[in-house]
Each structure stands twice: as C-alpha cells, then as structure tokens.
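Marked as duplicate of an earlier ticket. Keeping the data here for the record.
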Amino acid sequence: MLSTQKRHERDPHLDSLADPTLLREFAYINGEWCSGENDARTDVYNPANGVWLGSVASMSAEQSRNAVHLANAAFEAWSRKLPQERGKILDRWYDLMMEAKEDLAILMTAEQGKPLAESRGEVNYGASFLKWFSEEGKRVYGDIIPQTPDRRGLVIKQPIGVVAAVTPWNFPNAMITRKIAPALAAGCTVVLKPSEIAPQTAFILAEILDGTDLPKGVFNMVCGYGHTVGDTLIKHPDVRMVSFTGSTRTGNLIAHAAADDFKRFALEMGGKSASVILPDADLAAAVKGTINNCLLNSGQTCTALTRMLVPADKHDEACELAAAAVAKMTPGNPLEETTRLGPLSSAQQRDKVIDYIKLGIQEGAKLIAGGPEAPEGCEKGYFVKATVFGNVKPDSRIAQEEIFGPVLCVIPYNDEAEAVKIANGTQYGLSGAVWSGDDAKAKKIASKLRTGQVFVNGGAFNPMAPFGGFGHSGIGREFGKWGLEEFLEIRSLQL
C-alpha cells in the first residue's frame, strides 16, 4: 500500500536537487503555467518506497481542447520559420537539458524507479534527439520533376499541422524528446500528454523548454487520464497527427479513433522479442547480453529480449548461466549507485507481472530463478524478483504475451529453421537478436526475422537508425530522417 503522507512530507531525495525550481506542478499552455479545472491534481509517489513526491495539475477535456486551439493558432507562423531558426531553439533546449542532467536523472529515478545510472543514460539519450533534429530539420529537401523541355514539376514537403504526442511512463524523458524534437524541427506544433504515472519528468522538460525562445503555443503540455485528456486530443479535428508509444491495446483504440477523421498516426507498441542463440555462438556472452537487455528498466522496455532461444542440447547450460546472471541483480533502492534492478513503476504493473509468473508455473515451465514472492527487504515498494523460466513452450502464454517485467523465457529448439519459426511465431515484431560465431550466418538468420530491428552479436543500439515494428508492434518509424518524415506531408506544384 502506498503511504498517505501529507503533502509537506515530500520524499527527502528531492532535497538533493541542485535546482528545486525545476519542479513544476502546473500544465503548460500557450507559454503559461495553468492549474487544472477546479484545481484537480494527480499525486505522484516513489515506487521504491511509496513516499509522496508531489502532485501535478490534471486537466479537463475543455482545457485540452483549448490547448489544441492555441497550438493550431501558432502553427502558421511556426511552420514558416526557417529550419535554422527552429534548430537554434532545439539546440538551446539541449544545452539547458545538459545543465540540468543530474536533477533530471534523480527525479526520473524517484518517480519511475529505474536505477540512477540508467536514468543518467536516458537523459543523454533523450537530449541526443534535440541535437540531431536541430540539424536534420535543415535537410528536408524537395524534388524537381522534368515534364517537358521548358516545364518542371515541383515536389515539396511541408509540416502536417498540430501533433498530439502521447507518451508512456517507462522512458519518461526520451519518449518525449524523440517525438517533440522531430515534430518541432518539421514545423509542426505540439500538444503533449505524458503518462499520469510518471509525469514530473515531462513537467521539468517543459520548464526547461520555457527557458528558450520558443514562441507561445508551439509546445503545450496537458496531463490527465486517457479517457479525458487523451481521448479529447485524439478526436479533436484540428489535430492532424497522433504520435503514440504505449500498449498495443491502447494503440488499437487510437488507430480506430484517428481513422474516423483520417488523421495520420504513428504507433510504437508492445513486443515479445526473441534472442536467437545459434549453436556456434559464445553461449556465456550471448546469455549475458540477453539478460542485460531483458532486465533493463526492470524489464519495462518494449524492445526487451524476453524470449531466449537456445539449441536443445545447450538448454540446461544456458539456464544455469542465466540463473547466475540474475543472481547478481538483486532488487534495491534505485537511487543507490550500485543498484542494478529497481522497482516496477506501479502496484498495478507489479501485480500483473506476479500473475504472469504464477501463470508460468501453472503452464508447466521450469522455474529456474526468481518467483512470485516479494524480494527480501523490498516489501515497501513495487519490486519483483528477476525471474527465469526454462523449457518454455513456444505457444504458452508467457511466451506469447508481453509481460513487461523482469521475466525471461528460455525456449529450446532443434534446428535453425525451427528457431526462426519460433522467433517469428508471435503477433509482435519490434526487436530481436542473433548470436553466432559466424557473422555472415548471424546476418543471414537476422534477415529472416520479421521484426523492426535486430541486434547482431551484441551490436550497439543506433538511435538514428529507423525504429518501429511489424504487426502488433506498431505502424510508422521514429529516429533519423525517417522519424522526421512522419511529420511531413508531400505535395506537388504543377508549374
């Protein structure tokens, strides 16, 4: 149970902020800070200990409609600015984010639960989109189409209009900047709805952006619940695009709602990614790499490698290696520098993951490590043990459904063809990995996986390569020039 401290009994970790003035509690509309209707508020708690962190304004449907109206009013002037002018504002936002990096990391850890080292990494990762798109916006070119010797057609790209950006709680910094940066660079105006579970990071980002020369109305932020704020933004006739990251269920609802008004939408949703370890791979390195990816952010990552496919004759050895690896990731206070595994973000998410662990046992999978019991010494927060199941059947629910927690399924296979079939045997297709002693063989198998990205032998994540999924994992792409193009319309001038 969450504690019910009075509002003056705020989490003492916030006392370590270098700049406490960054903590905003109001929405941001047309360059001004606004309270919710009738001063409606949403309380925020530390998932590691249940202590109150603060509260943020919870906006009404009418206030959300007003934010869209003002964003639409600001669109024409902003869209006509030169890309260089828009880029300067993104550059300034980047600089101010870097100055507040440690405060952003501390607050993100306090409200979302990821270890402090991961939060610092996310701030750097999130800020990189500001720097990249400040330049990429300058590279939006058109085309000239020859028609006759003395006539040419002109193809131009222009911003789509007002964008509704709906972001999740698992990466509350980076999920915002990777949508807002390309939208602003393209010349669009934005209304952001961050998750009500971890909203304070968004409020700090808005406070930082307010310190730039961004014109009023270009960026707006309204916090609240999906059935009021989210639904209003998605259905508003002046919103011409919805950019969403979150669950497949919610993405499905957004797609149907947006289709009624023929809005463009980009959806980055769930995953059930496979890590395919081939017989000639360095088994220890492959298991370690898979575990590190699977348990990032306590498994609350849509790209998490939650299915580890291993040759049948190496299954038991792989399970032993996995058990040894997770044993080193004892849950603990995420604000301590040595912690590798923090809490889940909410009681609801914790309970969902525990139910899946119990289901795995019921389905007959072998519990190798972890289990449904609360980790010792972590009773106050939303902690779950890092859990490994062995001999998991490919068609079982724990192998088919996104758990979104620190749970790894080890699945044996007999040959490469079966491995590919299992890897492609879910409704998702967001990420994956292939491990082999032969790079050419690894690339060959990787090319057969129906997924938006594949890590080959532990290859580094490239945030400027196109990112998005197949099937129930999503529609559209983020990152790099592909992410910018999502916010542009193409038109032709017949000259």
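See parent ticket for discussion. The two ends are 68 Å apart (CA to CA).
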